Amino acid sequence: MKSVVINGYGTIGKRVADAVNIQNDMKVIGVSKTKPDFEAKMAVKKGYDLYIAIPEREQLFKDAGIEIAGTVDDMIKEADVVVDCTPGNVGPANLEKYKKEGVKAIYQGGEKHDLTGLSFNSFSNYDDSFGREYTRVVSCNTTGLTRTLKPIDDLCGIKKIRAVMVRRGGDPNQVNKGPINAIVPNPPTVPSHHGPDLKTVLYGSDITTVALIVPTTLMHQHSLMVEIERSVEKEEIIETLEKRSRVLVLDAKDGLGSTAEFMEYAKELGRSRNDLFEIPVWRESINVVDGELFYMQAVHQESDVVPENVDAIRSLLELEGDNEKSIAKTNKAMGIL
Ligand code: NAD
């Protein structure tokens, strides 16, 4: 049983902690917080040992009646791997700590690829992180793109990808994010950073992306235009995506014509926190026109990267040599479709 710690118990960190704890080959031995807020209280209630990222704040935690087990420096000493879920750009300072302690680490998409020189997706490049010291699970958007593009590439080859990314303004709990009433090209320059990020896990892909931010908190939405090597019928694409785990082909006509309805679907699945780990693709949007494939999908930004973090742990710690076996194990434990 390998020991995992979560540095940064926020939106992604708390989900990764719960997903790790239901696997049979790894367990969470500590999580960290900077503030004595409700998430810190809930973490302790759930039975996680809580460590503090800022030692000077120890008294604040005591005043709030929150029991702490030590500092982040203490926490990483006991770990086989740290899953670093701190906000983007905190990673470089933490890397020094991990190096000093000789502990392996997994970063998230808010950090730059250059920090680790290696990025991760369970389906496209699991082997490259096998036994390595550090890797980075790509962002929610890049994970969503990889999930559907990889099986399509395997089926018929991909020449060129164009994608329009409609991004949520903030996560549901981010009261200070926006816009409230605007559509914001973000970045306003073309291409956006999403295309280059895909190339860090789906090597050699020719992709250009443009991105916009809109007033919603629920999900991102992608419209993809893909020039394919070998002409295929749209039915083959549907069949391929239906077979692929962590991808769902769903019907707008079933009352699933929007991201809001996808989130309602996740609630009906009885998922904790209403999470939708899978990438839903609208069946009606899939079409091949003049040898070019079109489809539209959505991404639940708070949760799609969670199963990839579990697989990344297995890869780094050499717990499972076969990516498909790791994916199957993770899926089974988490009830992923
Ligand atoms: P978050 O703000 O919800 O959580 C971050 C947590 O880290 C907070 O609890 C914060 O208190 C804590 N923290 C801050 N500084 C710290 C430090 N120095 N040491 C330890 N803990 C510290 O952020 P998030 O949304 O969970 O994002 C975490 C990472 O995941 C980022 O790289 C982000 O880009 C990436 N990511 C986020 C999303 C998303 O939509 N939320 C999706 C995919 C990937």
UniProtKB/TrEMBL annotation:
- Please give the SMART domains that the UniProt record associates with this protein: Gp_dh_N
Record GO biological process: glycolytic process; lysine biosynthetic process via diaminopimelate
- The record lists NAD(+) as bound by T11, I12, G110, R168, Q301
CDD domains recorded: GAPDH_II_C, GAPDH_II_N
Where is the protein localized? Cytoplasm
* Residues reported to bind D-glyceraldehyde 3-phosphate: S139, C140, N141, H194, G195
Q: Where is the active site?
A: C140 (nucleophile)
Residue span of the signal peptide, if any? none
Q: Report the catalytic activity.
A: D-glyceraldehyde 3-phosphate + phosphate + NAD(+) = (2R)-3-phospho-glyceroyl phosphate + NADH + H(+); D-glyceraldehyde 3-phosphate + phosphate + NADP(+) = (2R)-3-phospho-glyceroyl phosphate + NADPH + H(+)
Mainly localized where? cytoplasm
Q: Which UniProt keywords are given for this protein, alphabetically ordered?
A: Cytoplasm, Glycolysis, NAD, NADP, Oxidoreductase
| Residues of the Glyceraldehyde 3-phosphate dehydrogenase NAD(P) binding domain | 2-140
**Any single Pfam family the record assigns to this protein:** Gp_dh_C
PROSITE patterns from the entry?
GAPDH
Cellular component GO terms, alphabetical: cytoplasm
Fetch the NCBIfam families from UniProt: GAPDH-II_archae, PRK04207.1
Family indicated by similarity: Belongs to the glyceraldehyde-3-phosphate dehydrogenase family.
Subunit architecture: Homotetramer.
What is the recorded name of this protein? Glyceraldehyde-3-phosphate dehydrogenase
